[in-house]
Amino acid sequence: MFAFKKKYFLIIESIKDLNLRNIKKYNKFLIIYRNHKTKDSLEDLIKFRKQCRLKLIDFFVANDKKLAVLLNSDGVYLSSYNKSFKALNLKKINFQIIGSAHNVSEIYLKIKQGCSKILLSKLLLVDYDKKDPILGVVKFNKCLNTIFNKLVPLGGIKIKNLNKLKQINCESFAILSEIKKKPAKIINRLF
After folding, report:
1. DSSP 8-state code for residue 1
2. How many Cα atoms sit within 13 Å of 68 on the Cβ side?
3. Dihedrals φ, ψ of 52, to 5°?
4. Are strands 7-12 and 75-78 parallel, antiparallel or unpaired?
5. What HEC string does 108-176 produce?
6. How far does the chain reach from its first CA to its final CA, in angstroms?
7. Whole-model pTM?
8. How far is 101 from 110, CA to CA, in rounded Å?
9. 29 touches 191 (CB < 8 A)
10. Domain map of the chain by residue range?
11. What fold characterizes domain 7-189?
12. How distant is the alpha carbon of residue 145 from its chain centre?
């Protein structure tokens, strides 16, 4: 089965995590570049950004306003630990701001920070922390309807549980770990 949504958020930690040639559909993907562990060269990032632009892929940089402006990205991504309001200045130059949250108080903080979309984690069970609580489909839909209608589910989304995403009342979802493990396979299943 396939998981049909309007937009797919792909979170990468290096531009080597994702081969853009695997992406055939235009204007369906949004890439969030989280560069806190590995450092790609500026020249490689500029080439990657140009390829994204040619394929109509939105490109966001995580927690680095200077790099986002330098790459002429579509916006900036504020992690859940980022509590700063400095990113609001980017709205003046038509930058989009998206963020991530783990609970209701963080959701309201991201709204105050000017986020147009909020990635809400953890939707399903993740491999790295099996004891941490998860939202599940029912709780996520309840949060979506009562708190904020621009929530995007994140966490635990794998090839084997893509069918569960059909039950979620949202127009998009975000993938992190599955992009590193099986990028071509997951992208092919998204259509």
Report:
1. -
2. 27
3. -60, -45
4. unpaired
5. HHHHHCCCCEEEEECCCCCCCCCCCCCCHHHHHHHHHHHCCCCEEEECCCCHHHHHHHHHCCCCEEEEC
6. 9
7. 0.81
8. 7
9. no
10. 7-189
11. TIM Barrel (3.20.20)
12. 20
**Residue 30, beta-bridge partner list:** 9, 58
Q: What is the pLDDT of residues 37-86, one digit of tens each?
A: 667 889 999 999 999 999 999 999 998 888 988 999 999 999 988 888 77
Find out whether 157 and 178 touch, Cβ atoms under 8 Å: yes
DSSP 90: G
Q: What is the pLDDT of residues 129-155, one digit of tens each?
A: 555 666 666 666 666 555 666 778 777
Structure tokens at 33: 């570049």
Token duo for residue 150: 């621009």
Radius of gyration of the chain (CA): 16
Question: How far apart (Å, rounded) are the C-alpha atoms in residues 5 and 127?
Answer: 24
